[in-house]
Design brief:
Elements: H1 7-26, H2 32-48, H3 60-89, H4 97-109, H5 111-121, H6 125-136, H7 141-148, H8 152-172, H9 188-191
Length: 194
Amino acid sequence: MHAARDPAAFEEFYRRHIDGVTRFVARRITDPHLVADLTGDIFLAVLDSADSYRPGRGSETAWLYGIARNVVSVEWRRAARESQATSRIAGRRLLEPDDVSRLEERIDAEAAAREHREALAGLPEGERAVIELVVVDQLTTGEAATALGIGPVAVRVRLHRARKTLRAAAKRAQQPDGTSGSDTTTLSYLRGNA
């Protein structure tokens, strides 16, 4: 479509179709502001996709209404998602300031646990598997070796590497005053006490 490259031709195209496109949108949308916005979006989409128009596949009107249909469909999907999100909170009690404060305190208190979780997630799969089996599931290194199908020496090497990586992460996570953000007993596995 040459109208996209020629402002005068686009103006003529716009004037020829604006009423029909506005009626098309107004039959589907009841908010006048949204009708105006979507009509504008349709003509912007025409400019963006002008190169896709093929006269042999149909008239410019059919092509334009295909674009209009797509723009309106996108709006319907957006509105449906918004409505669904709104309905999820409809009828629910909004949080009181005290509730928000308690939740913020809980979130702050769990910061160290989130850091540990992130540190574990950053380990290579083999090292993470060993730490989880030995520390979380409290298997011996021999039992972990059997569970993973590797030798006990490999388990001890992976455990050493994982603890070293986690110790470094814990050191980086220390607060500016030199104290750790977590209880030292939760870090006993880093020292090899587990």
